[in-house]
Amino acid sequence: MSREARYGLLYSEYEFSPYVRIPFEKFALIIVCFPLLAFMFCISYSVLFNFESATYTHCQVYNMLPSISAAIGNFSPQREIWQGAIAIHAVPRFYIAFEYLHHHYSVLFPQDLWIGQIAFFLNIVENVALIILSFFTSSKFYAVHEKAFITFILGSEMYMILTCILQSRYKKQSRVSFKWKKRFLITNLMCIFSAVYFFMRHNSLCEPYVYTLFALSEYIVVLSNMAFHLTAYFDFENKDLVVYKHGVALTER
C-alpha cells in the first residue's frame, strides 16, 4: 500500500471515528432530567421562600401551592434556572423529533407516513411553544405567554394522541412503550380537564384551596408530558447516540 493510500485510510478513520458514544436510554433520561429537576426546584423554592406572593390570587383566599406560571416566571432565581434548563434541553429535543421522523419511515407502512410527518410538525410546535412561554413570562408578557401556553397544550395533546395512533399501526409494536404512552396520555388528559374545572371554579366562587387543586392538576399535566417523552427510552433502546467530527448519528449498539 502506498504512503498516500495509508494516509488516506488513516485520515478517513480519524474523520469518522466517534468522539463520544452514549446509550440512547441514558441520553433520553438526561434530557428529561433538565426540565424535571428545574421544575421541582422552582416549585419547592417558591413554596419555601416566596409562599405569600406565589400563592396569591385575586380572590385573596388561602392556597397551598403556586401555579406553574408563578413558580417558573415571577421570581428569581427560579426564572433563570427554568429558562436555562429549557434552553439546554431544547436542541436535543429538536434532534429527537428528527430521529422520530426517521424512525417512523422505517416502522410505518407507506400509507401511514403522512401521520408521522404531522406528528413531527406537532412535536416541533410543542417545543417552540415551550421555549416561548418560558422566556416570555406571564408577569411581563401575559398576552404572548398565554398564546404560547395554549399552543403548547394543544400541540402536546395532539402530538401524544397521534403518536399513540401511530404506534398502534407500527409494523412491529413495542408493547412496553405503547402501554406507557397510553397511560401517560390518559393521565394528561384527565388532569387537563381537572385543571380547567378547578380554575373556572376558583374564578367564579373564590373558595379556599381550589386554586391549590388547580395547581396540583397543572403539575401532573407537566409531569405526565415529560414522562410521555421519556418513553423514547423504549423506542430507541439498544441504540447509541454517536458524536463524530462532523455531526451526530443514531447507530445500532
Task: Count up the helices.
Answer: 10
Uncertain segments are: 3-14
Number of E strands: 3
Q: What is the mean predicted local confidence, pLDDT? A: 88
| Beta-strand residue fraction | 5-15%
Structural class: mainly alpha
Order of helices and strands: HEHHHHHHHHHEE
**Helix fraction by DSSP (H/I, runs of at least 4):** over 70%
Radius of gyration: 22 Å
- Termini separation: 32 Å
Main sheet characteristics: 3 strands, antiparallel
The side-by-side strand order for the widest beta sheet comes to: 1-2-3
Task: Specify the overall morphology.
Answer: globular
Description:
With 253 residues, the protein is mainly α. The chain contains ten helices and three strands, in the order H-E-H-H-H-H-H-H-H-H-H-E-E. The protein has a three-stranded antiparallel β-sheet with strand order 1-2-3. Helix 2 packs antiparallel against helix 5. The radius of gyration is 22 Å and the shape is globular. The chain starts with a helix and ends with a strand. Keywords: Golgi apparatus, GPI-anchor biosynthesis, Membrane, Transmembrane, Transmembrane helix. It is found in: Golgi apparatus membrane. This is CWH43-like N-terminal domain-containing protein. It is a multi-pass membrane protein.
